[in-house]
Amino acid sequence: MVFFKISVSQHVCTFCEKLKAKKSFTHKNVLKERKNENIKLLLCLSSCVQFAAVLDCVLSKLSRYDEGTLFSSILSFTVSSLSLSSALQKPGMDLADTYITFVRQNQDILRDRVNDELYTEKVFEQWYTGSMKAVCVWLTDRLDLQLHMYQLKTLIKIVKKTYRDFRLQGVLDGTLNNKSYETIYNRLTVEEATVAVKAGGGLQGISMRDSDEEDD
After folding, report:
1. Which residues form the MUN domain (predicted)?
2. Could you tell me where the DSSP H helices lie in 63-148?
3. What confidence tens digit (pLDDT) does each residue in 151-162 have?
4. 89, 153 in Cβ contact below 8 A?
5. What is the rounded (10 degree) CA torsion for 59, 165, 49, 123?
6. Residue 65: partners with Cβ closer than 8 Å, 6 or more residues away
7. Pairwise CA distance, residues 188 & 112, whole Å
8. Residue 168 to residues 74, 107, 121, 131: CA-CA distances in angstroms?
9. Which residues neighbour 96 within 8 Å (Cβ) at sequence distance 6 or greater?
10. Under 8 Å CB-to-CB from 169, ≥6 apart: which residues?
């Protein structure tokens, strides 16, 4: 009888030890998962900051064409004299094309090198949201200025391609059509209509309304 009590007691102790070990292992796993999540969050923020810096550089270059600047005045006179030759239109499109290529290349890199789908989706979501916010702020700072044709054409192309590319990457409509995008869309549409009235020829096929019909 005594032997039975000792045996039961030993089993109880063994069970308690296993339970404690299991709890300790679970706690360590939780801490490890939290640490991994924090690392992923920091990497996500770091990536988005770097992507934002590239867009800021693009917007900074577009600022040179602000209404009233010497560069804008000289360029407008030249464009008017040469009837909007394709040679003068190209620099603005080069800027847009270079940025779009940068975005697509880095989207592909993320898809190829990162196996965590949730992390990738988070980066794309934050990247898109930050990009639209940056463009929206840039336009808001120029609320009282009419955009130069270079600025308008470049922004239309960047915004439309960005919208479409991130939609293809799985960013949801609720994120795509955020307030910043709506503000940008309305502003660029108004600017486009103004150019169409003043210049007659408009933007030579570039429009906010036909993004799905344009070539890549």
Report:
1. 16-119, 121-166
2. 70-81, 86-113, 117-140
3. 999 999 999 999
4. yes
5. 160
6. 71, 72, 75, 148, 150, 151
7. 34
8. 40, 11, 12, 16
9. 153, 154, 157, 158, 161
10. 107, 111, 124
